[in-house]
Design a protein that fits this description.
560 residues; alpha/beta; Rossmann fold; 3 domains; five-stranded parallel beta sheet; 10 strands; 48% helix; Origin recognition complex subunit 3 winged helix C-terminal domain-containing protein
Length: 560
């Protein structure tokens, strides 16, 4: 849903301000409407304690689940480390050094800091830090021996050779645990080369732990240089705690207090978790807004007066005794049903919603589509300065309804359809542009669209013009006294009509000119859209090393 901003205060501008776009660029400050008040941020009394207890219960369930899951995963990793240190039962004649590697799925966020309790030498790095092999090896070296020791070395040894020398000099020669968090972000070739290089140092007791959101997807995209040099182990922390959506299911199963979730709400939350995998944080956010929505818009919010609190307390006592599923009159008042806008409160994305609304304005009101022909697309002309000489014929396209200007004394304001029409026009011109957008072409294209729309409004059909001419001649003939005067008046009227017709034909070749006040208003609307487009990430300035052109910007995204 697009919010209509308040009418900006136009800055007084002279004719010289339009000489250069950089001189006319200014940011219109947002003025908050005094009549608009913010919505409630917490449930109102006297039932606020009831909702607070429900929210605290959801959080405690999630914390208990995460604590238990972290403990189970930590025990599984400890068992894997013990198995790696245990000598093999069978002694083969040719002992091949194999790199112990474990993959854990859906690791807890509280687990990485606890890995140091298992071994002395532990280093955790994120998958984003291993964009290439050099960065990965350097990160490992710095993580174990430090930045200062790596900078002071003067030999030609590699980073892992320095780690091996450092480990040999240590009194505690415990294994080295390397944990790569979000390992799916590491390029497959980089991870394959890294594991192969680690196998080339058999004297280093390295244990490699990879945490990924999906083991199946990770293994399907991972390649090996030498598969026989890896001792692979997949860790699973139980059926319910290791699988996807376990935290959400635990919250939904245990949330059976006085304020209980309806079946439709539970199905919607599980479906969203199955589709997006947002985790418990997204579900808790949805439950928080659901409690706030229920405290303001449900039937319970309408009967929470002081004189009815005794009846509500009696119903709550019966629910606690007989259970939430008991057939008690008034039990449905404490049921949390799914609100109509659960999808927006559970996973809000205002930026995507705004771009979707601008791309498909028909969802808000029925209107024709805006043409993005090369004549109206900004940045397609050879020069930005030549765009100021364009006429309205270069912007021939059908657009949404134009600004309502019935009030001639208040031209600076537009109705909702006019505001949305201007936003749609500016966004369509941006969308149809190339990699770069010339601001002058963008502004002139916007003005040309507005001028052409005004011309379509002011131009009536030929039948209406002919009927108006006949009525005018009939009225003039009825007011004449004699036939000769009527004929003379008719001749004069015909001559005047021919002259006026010639003048109208000459004026019809020229586009209608905008007033100074209307030009300033369009310029202000254009600058405001440019500033909002910059904040949304639609446009950005050129780099410092690029060409010095202040009237061009680069399109940041092209996904819409």
């Amino acid at each position: 849903m697009l919010l209509k901003p308040t009418t900006p205060q136009l800055v007084e501008m002279t004719a010289d301000s339009f000489e250069s776009l950089s001189q006319g660029v200014f940011v219109i400050p947002f003025q908050e409407d005094e009549n608009v008040t913010s919505g409630p941020s917490q449930p109102r009394r006297p039932l606020a304690r009831l909702y607070e207890e429900a929210w605290t219960g959801f959080n405690s369930i999630h914390e208990n689940f995460e604590t238990s899951r972290t403990s189970e995963q930590l025990d599984d990793i400890a068992d894997w480390l013990d198995r790696c240190s245990t000598p093999p039962l069978l002694k083969l004649p040719s002992n091949v050094a194999r790199l112990p590697l474990a993959i854990v799925q859906n690791i807890s966020a509280h687990l990485p800091p606890l890995l140091s309790t298992l071994l002395t030498h532990v280093y955790t790095m994120h998958g984003r830090e291993t964009s290439d092999l050099t960065a990965a090896v350097r990160s490992l070296t710095v993580g174990f021996i430090g930045e200062a020791a790596l900078a002071n070395r003067k030999s030609g040894r590699t980073g892992l050779d320095e780690v091996e020398r450092w480990w040999t000099s240590q009194k505690d020669k415990s294994p080295l645990l390397i944990h790569i968090e979000q390992a799916q972000l590491v390029p497959s070739s980089v991870l394959a080369e890294l594991t192969y290089i680690l196998t080339l140092h058999p004297d280093l007791p390295i244990r490699l732990l990879l945490s990924v959101p999906s083991t199946t997807l990770f293994l399907s995209t991972w390649t090996h240089i030498e598969p026989s040099a890896i001792n692979l182990c997949i860790l699973q922390a139980g059926k319910s705690r290791g699988k996807r959506g376990g935290a959400v299911n635990a919250i939904l199963r245990a949330g059976r207090g006085p304020l209980r979730l309806s079946e439709r709400t539970e199905e919607a939350l599980r479906a969203d978790e199955e589709m997006f995998g947002s985790g418990a944080s997204s579900a808790l956010k949805a439950l928080k807004w659901l409690l706030l929505f229920h405290s303001q818009n449900s039937a319970l919010a309408a009967v929470d007066e002081q004189d009815k609190l005794a009846e509500l307390q009696a119903i709550l006592e019966e629910i606690r005794k007989q259970g939430p599923d008991a057939q008690i009159p008034g039990n449905d008042l404490f049921e949390l049903d799914i609100p109509p806008d659960l999808g927006h409160t559970q996973d809000p994305a205002p930026r995507i919603s705004i771009l979707h609304a601008l791309s498909q304005p028909s969802s808000f009101h029925h209107s024709p589509q805006i043409s993005t022909s090369p004549e109206t697309v900004p940045g397609t002309s050879a020069s930005g300065r030549s765009s100021t000489k364009r006429t309205h014929d270069e912007s021939d396209s059908h657009h949404v309804s134009t600004t309502d200007e019935s009030d001639s004394h208040h031209v600076s304001t537009t109705d909702e359809r006019g505001d949305l029409k201007e936003l749609q026009t500016l966004f369509a011109l941006w969308r149809g542009a190339g990699k770069t957008v010339n601001l002058w072409d963008w502004l002139e294209g916007f003005r040309g669209v507005v001028v052409s729309d005004k011309e379509e409004e002011n131009t009536s059909s030929p039948n209406e013009q002919e009927s108006n001419g006949k009525k005018r001649r009939r009225g003039q003939g009825a007011g004449a006294g004699s036939g000769e005067q009527e004929e003379g008046d008719d001749d004069v009227d015909m001559d005047e009509e021919e002259v006026n017709g010639d003048k109208q034909d000459e004026q019809g070749d020229k586009p209608p000119q905008l007033s100074d006040q209307e030009s300033e208003r369009l310029h202000a609307a254009f600058i405001r859209f440019c500033e909002e487009a910059r904040m949304l990430g639609l446009v950005r300035a050129r780099a410092k090393g690029g060409p010095k052109r202040a009237d061009e910007v680069i399109k940041s995204i092209g996904l819409v």
